[in-house]
Prior knowledge:
This protein is an alpha+beta fold. It has two domains: about 15-70, Winged helix-like DNA-binding domain superfamily/Winged helix DNA-binding domain (Arc Repressor Mutant, subunit A, Orthogonal Bundle); about 85-250, GAF domain (Beta-Lactamase, 2-Layer Sandwich). Helix content is about 45%, strand content about 15%. The protein is built from nine helices and eight strands. The protein has a six-stranded antiparallel β-sheet with strand order 5-4-3-8-7-6, with helices on both faces. A hairpin with a 6-residue loop joins strand 6 and strand 7 (about 200-205). The longest helix has 21 residues, at about 230-250. The radius of gyration is 20 Å and the shape is globular. The protein starts with 14 loop residues before the first helix and ends with a helix.
Amino acid sequence: MAAAPPRLRPTYALRSVDNALRLLQMLRDLGEVRVKDAALELGVAPSTVHRVMSMLVFRGFAVQDASRTYLPGPSIGVPPVAMPTARQVQDAARSHLDALRDAVGESANLMVLAGTDVRFLLTAEAAGPLHAHDRRGFVLPAHRSAGGRAILAMLDPSTIDGLYAGRLDDEDLRRLDGELALVRARGYAVSAEEAERGIVSAAAPIHGLALAAVSIAGPTARGGAITGDASIARLLEARDRIAEELAARTPSR
């Protein structure tokens, strides 16, 4: 196999981008990043490290522990979505997420299941100072999120047991089974600050595609409206329209 060509620094290199990438490498290779150490390594002020790391935290590439040390986040090292129709689902959902956001006044999301996590593919972000922000690229535990439980509810119990073998203890698995039974009965899932503090969400699985869901999310102050009958009706309507458009875009065999 031929050797790879040398990697040369681009003449148009952006310092802020390079700082972010170097911090990602530090998280990956060292397992933790302290602001003072990173500032010395990069030759920048601690405030610059804070600003860059805050964006990495927002995008899920870093988390901060009790000592305020930064650790690798759930978005580091995750493989591409193993779903050949991911782009097709995105395209089918885009306009309907926009319509759902406008109808309920809250952010709307498209997500898919990836192992025991849920991955956000698309967000129609609500306006205003107090709302759930863009979640594209986020990774959350499926069993703790509304979208994840909506998708898991479409899987058979033996598949659920296989996914969570060794990951959840018997009590947590029984609790999850009960939650999924409720999702199957009412057709949608709800999460109140289980995956993200301050966020309430409701999600419905996209029929015909057993690994995707659509959700609405917003602050706990509006949780009653988010999970109320009017919003749920709009959510289920958007879900059905996405499924219909996806079916229309899929060539018949």
